Amino acid sequence: MAEREHKRVAVIGSGFGGLGSGVRLRREGVTDFVILERADAVGGTWRDNDYPGCACDVPSHLYSFSFAPNAGWPRTFSGQPHIRDYLERVTDAFGLRPHLRFDSEVQQARWNPEAAHWELRTASGELTADVLISAAGPLSDPKIPDIPGLADFPGRVFHSSRWDHDFDLDGKRVAMVGTGASAIQIVPSIQPRAGRLTVVQRTPPWVMPRMDRGVNAVEKWLHGTIPATHQARRGLLWLIREFQVGAFVKRPQLMKATEQIAKSHLRRAIKDPALRAELTPDYTIGCKRILLSNDYYPALAQPNTEVVTSALTEVRGSTIVTADGTEREVDAIVFGTGFHVQDMPIGDRVVGADGRTLAEHWKDGMAALRGITVDGFPNLLLVIGPNTGLGNSSMILMIESTLNYIADYLRTLDRTGAAALDARPQAVRSWNEALQRRMGRTVWNSGGCTSWYLDAAGRNTTAWPGTTAEFRRATRQVRLAEYDVLRTSVPEEAGV
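^ that's the sequence the OP posted. Answer follows.
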């Protein structure tokens, strides 16, 4: 068999998780690695989501790597172009370009138990790696519902994360399906241009004011000249969000005060009582993701906008039909219907020690030890794995904690002389049973809604029921007792 290229580490994806992995590997002295990216540029979700109005709902000064502070954010909540530019600059500043391999979608990654390494088949060729880091991310692959007649729709159809920039919206009849985080940014951005905008809403979101403003020159100068001021600002933003966690995970009744702010925000923007009633959620705020916008409600109140409070059930030619029988002729259908979070496509492509895919292993629900490793999948490390999502703070904090764990994982391999570590099934079960016990009283589980945080069985396999500081403590180092230590059975000189 011809010898294939071999790497110490292969990383899937070049978003925040993949690039952060590359930086941390280099800092650990590991330079024999490759970052496999299916697209032709870095950025991950911030490359793919370039729809009108796309911006972050986490404050800019908390939405960056601690090792790559950015004193030049233009706004307190920055837009997609600025975040993507930040990731390009991180790529260059930390020397990651030589490690990047574009147009290299991973088609399959299979663990070879005899050789104790991963065998990868990509769109650009094959390779092997001792360690596989999956930073594909849960918000990577768009989900479009299977709607009867959609395939025969004569107009344009696209998902928010695959925006059709060639389509001229001016004067067109547009249906926006979904009212989640992307939709509330898209609607006010396209409403002035559309001839008629139909917003198809199954469940209204809770919307809070967005405290966004430009960052002035004095602030930028101060943060750039005296880094401690930027660190203090970041620290304060972090601390505020840490204090909020208690209401989300222990005492959802405390969310009532926040609900009153959201209701007041709605009353100020929507004067029509009937429309206001349609836009008022009937579940506890925080059960679904809390959204931030100052212009979403005003856009819904415009004469050319209509809110249909029923799910899309059928498409007949150029007519969309909702469950309540409403029919509307449209020229384009835009889906803001989320992503494959509980059934990430990468799961079908990763094959473990027993020949089963990760998706098959997770058929009863996603589960990972400390959100990072999975039993039966040696030397597979997940960035933003199960139960590492946040409802109120920056995912970059969770990513950096995961990177700490990955660094210690590699050090543990070197220290023990192990070819691989395999999470023990009991360790995975114990970790996740404890998580699920804590989940019962969280707002995500008890708030009276159905959300993408929950799987088909109603288990919350997405969110982290604690503070970011707690997760950092939990992932500070590898506990060898939670793993089986594997040795290779193939002599090194045998090759592959």
